[in-house]
Amino acid sequence: MQRPAPIDEEFLFEGRTIISETDTKGIITYANRTFCDISGYSKEELVGSPHNIIRHPDMPKAAFKEMWDAIQMGKSWHGFVKNMRKDGRYYWVESYVSPIYDDNQNIAGYIAARTVPKRKDIEHAITLYASMRANEQ
Fold this sequence. Notes:
34% of the residues lie in helices and 28% in strands. The protein is an alpha+beta fold.
């Protein structure tokens, strides 16, 4: 079976940024129009769903553990993520995730901004993630 082709991120993003917000458990509470356009999901399908609705099976668990460890400690995280659209095609993003605080300075959720990564960063991530996945087995 042939794998679905990647989407042309540079064309679809057109200089836009994917923005989403989640609660502390990773349930989507906000998705901007670009997120909907790129992922192929409607806002109604995204909001209320776990953010891993777009997780590509090629992504190693350790990459997300690193992210969750950082943001739950109140730190920001930066990394490269391969996501899967509703139609099965995939796209890469350069992701920045930060905590959102309530009035009492408690973490109330997370906000993520994602842009199109450089080709060299995707190539590096592919090699790194293949190695990480091999260590998971």
